[in-house]
Amino acid sequence: MSLRLRSPFILLCLTVIAGCATTLPDDAPKQVLIPLLYATDRNVDLSDDASSFYGSERGALSFGMATVALSPRKEGESPFADWSRWQPRSGTTYNRNELLTVAPLDRGSFSRRLDRSVFLYVHGFRRDFDISAMDLAHVVYEADLRSVPVFFSWPSANSILAYAGDTTNARWATNDLRDTLKYLLNQPSVDTVHIAAHSLGGNGLLEALERLSRDDEARIDKIGEVILASPDIDTGLFRREYLPMLRRVGSRTTLYITENDVPLQASQRVNGNNRLGDASSEIFIEEGIETVVFSDVVTFMNSHDAIVEAGNVQADLHYLLEDRLGASERPTLEAVDTEYGRYWRAQPYPAQ
């Protein structure tokens, strides 16, 4: 089903409203510390010129913890962002975001840091380890998430020219993602695992879930919300292969898409088939999927990365993950009924 684009003037007006950041007091810290857990199958890079502890080559699955320093003065697009919740970084004069520490952990030490609710984030194309950590920290801060945040970092290269290699590596990492998810689900201390995958990471997540759905030892009954954000996934393949699986798993699946996603439109030209996250080619409407079109609350520059960069999308995530509200219950959305069924459009968050 094709969609018409909203007028540029309306998009501009809504974008201005959506971009209003939270006002901070003068004594707000320059940086706050966001602790994260991670699983990765990247190689460890100890070379002298390495820019990160983990590189872009393939490695063995390992676990650890990381700390990201975020600047509240650069964040605060969502009304739920709360700098006072986080430990301030003392002695810094920087107003910037950065990955501060990376500490590998054995599985026992990793599992002891888990709690009843876990949020697992799978990054997409063109993300190195450091950017992946900062992306999750953005989401946690802006959406004010209380679940233990974990990111799975597969060996993506931070290069726009590495799309083919990233596609192959995302597929290669599927077994490790499956094992990570199964490990989280089977921890006695964990009651719920929410999962979000962005862009190319959605392919790996769906394949991992497909394999887990046939594993009698995996506690898939603990899967909470499943979120596909700007997924770079073949629409026809999703409808035929993965939609039946998601219905078997039984968890609510939310699909975030937009009409002005240039990277997905480029991917469509490369791959030759519609991409699930590109609402300009089709708005995906099927039973069991809650589809949210967020074109009206993003800009041309942040449309593909809206889950990380758009405050109105992150406000909607707060209602979804913290309050467990369906699309019809969230004040950030407006229902649109079509001959094919219902979907929702994200709206600027109501003035406080």
How would you characterize this protein structure?
By secondary structure, the protein is of the alpha/beta class. It has a single domain, classed as Rossmann fold (3-Layer(aba) Sandwich), CATH 3.40.50.1820. 30% of the residues lie in helices and 25% in strands. It has ten helices and twelve strands. Strands 1, 2, 3, 4, 5, 6, 7, 8, 9, 10, 11 and 12 form a twelve-stranded mixed β-sheet that branches. Helix 6 (201-212) packs across helix 7. The two termini are 36 Å apart. The relative contact order is 0.14.
Number of strands: 12
Radius of gyration: 19 Å
Principal-axes geometry comes out as globular
Distance between the termini: 36 Å
What are the segments in which pLDDT stays under 50 over at least 5 consecutive residues?
Answer: 1-20
Task: Give average pLDDT, whole number.
Answer: 91
CATH superfamily (homologous) name: Alpha/Beta hydrolase fold, catalytic domain
Kindly identify the CATH topology.
Rossmann fold
The CATH class is Alpha Beta
Strand content: 25-35%
**CATH architectural group:** 3-Layer(aba) Sandwich
Series of H and E elements: HEEEEHEHEHHEHEHEHEHHEE
How helix-rich are the residues, as a percent range?
25-40%
Structural class: alpha/beta
Q: Tell me about the biggest sheet?
A: 12 strands, mixed
